[in-house]
Specification:
- This protein is an alpha+beta fold.
- Helix content is 25%, strand content 13%.
- The longest helix has 9 residues.
- 3% of the residues are buried.
- The model has no long low-confidence stretch (mean pLDDT 80).
Amino acid sequence: MAEASCCESCSYYVYNEYYEYYECLVGLDEDELAKFLTGTMNSCPFYKNDDEYSIVRKQN
């Protein structure tokens, strides 16, 4: 799976404790939402890697 299409590793994909499910915090506009729902969006333009160790690896 391409990195930019994997919601589980995105920092905007968070667990909502009140509703007890994961959700995306990015507010998509109408066109982006339509592409996402129909499966025509190949990768998310808002993807941000949630790798907290990436800075440490750069220091080595």
